[in-house]
Design goal:
Layout: H1 2-6, H2 8-23, E1 29-33, H3 37-43, H4 48-69, E2 73-80, H5 88-107, H6 109-113, E3 116-121, H7 129-141, E4 148-156, H8 158-174, H9 185-190, E5 205-208, H10 220-223, E6 229-232, H11 242-254
Parallel strand pairs: 1-2, 1-5, 2-4, 3-4, 5-6
Length: 261
């Protein structure tokens, strides 16, 4: 890694990619499945907890890279509903790590200077109370920002999101607030997470690290029915580089055009 970062050819290629991205069609919504923290730790003789911490550092870097190339929405798959099956020690570590990161985001001069709105999407009520409280605090501190949206998917499952939206719509119909005939794609989208009138928009690009080529029930509504690109790459999340990110963005920009990154 250190050799690659000092390699002039690497630096030139990174700058070339960035210039092409800035001159191309904007990629407004990037969704990332951050896979491989535990495998990275195991491969390098580290604790799984350190693997998660290093992954959290990568998440912060990616947020910066998104600002550089004008990404409007970044959605990070951070803790799925299936992750509740992990052992209690690991879950407690993850919840504390996520809480501390939300605290840092809420106090970050960079977040405030760049107008980044931070919010959690998912069944947040399933999370520990102290984490819920910190999420609310950070969301409130960044509520009025619109330059970029950082969406952190917590206690998230794509099928569960659709079920919750269906239940919410059914309740609206039963109360006479809307009619069944009014239910269309836009109305369904407005009842997806977060149900605050600022729904997560359609996805332009899904990135998955760690070598697996699947989307794991992530944003099924937002990533389907449009021209969403998928970029699967081998690096584990803690070793995901800026060059990997830029190649993914360029792939989304050039899909169907016959061009190459």
């Amino acid at each position: 890694m250190s050799f690659i970062l000092r390699n002039p050819a690497y630096v030139f290629y990174e700058r070339l990619l960035k210039s092409r991205i800035l001159a191309g069609v904007p990629v407004e919504h990037v969704a990332i499945i951050q896979d491989g923290n535990r495998r990275y730790a195991r491969q390098n003789g580290l604790s799984r907890f350190l693997g998660h911490s290093l992954g959290a550092d990568t998440s912060e870097k990616v947020s910066d890279w998104c600002l550089e190339v004008g990404v409007k929405h970044l959605t990070l798959y951070t803790f799925s509903t299936e992750n509740f099956n992990r052992d209690e020690v690991e879950k407690r570590y993850l919840f504390d790590l996520i809480k501390n990161k939300f605290m840092e985001l809420g106090q970050s001069k960079k977040i405030h200077a760049n107008g980044v709105r931070v919010r959690a999407i998912g069944r947040v009520e399933m999370l520990p109370q102290d984490l819920q409280a910190q999420i609310s605090c950070t969301e409130e501190a960044t509520r009025n920002y619109k330059t970029m949206y950082l969406n952190v998917a917590l206690a998230y499952g794509g099928q569960r999101e659709l079920v919750d939206a269906a239940r919410s719509l059914a309740q609206q119909v039963s109360l006479g607030k809307i009619s069944a005939a009014e239910v269309d794609e836009n109305l369904i989208a407005s009842h997806l997470y977060p149900q605050d009138g600022t729904a997560v928009p359609k996805v332009d690009l899904i990135i998955r690290t760690g070598g697996d080529c699947r989307t794991s029930n992530f944003l099924p509504w937002q990533a389907n029915g449009n021209e969403c690109a998928a970029y699967f790459c081998a690096p584990y999340w803690p070793e995901f580089r800026k060059i990997d990110f830029l190649r993914a963005i360029r792939t989304a920009q050039t899909r169907g055009s016959g061009q190459q990154a």
